[in-house]
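Q: Structure tokens for this one, please.
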Amino acid sequence: MRSKNPRKFLRPEESALVEQAIARAESCTSAQVKFVITRHCWGDIRDKAWRVFKKLGLYRTAHRNCVLILLVTTNREFCVYGDRGIHEEVGQAHWDDVCDHMARRFKDDALAEGLSEGIALISEHLARYFPHRAGNVNEISNEVDYQE
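A: Here is the predicted structure, written as tokens:
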């Protein structure tokens, strides 16, 4: 059983795997990916994702092309939330496909693998709309963010 404490939810090697997946993803697209673990979500997880997105300033990327993956430990739920620039290009169906893939892996307690694969799916799709360009700047830290 995994801890509900966001800082203890993933093992250190799992966090490292996720951070490496984000770095790989951002090497093939100018889009940014942020993974956040939080303990609670009262109400709709998409509303919580929007609040976290806003709190962390993820909307400030140059092309409005940041994707947030939010995982809630107590509720055992997660959400993929794309900024306006991305959502206009890929639509909800893409996020649903990514979430479905990740959920299948999570059921086997393959969290880091599910997250890494989900991040790869996100980047494959986003590379079409937001290709990597010379001089791309990593606008958002790749480190896992823990919220209480």
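A few notes: The longest strand covers residues 32-38. Residues 6-131+141-147 form a domain with the Diaminopimelate Epimerase; Chain A, domain 1 fold (CATH 3.10.310.50).
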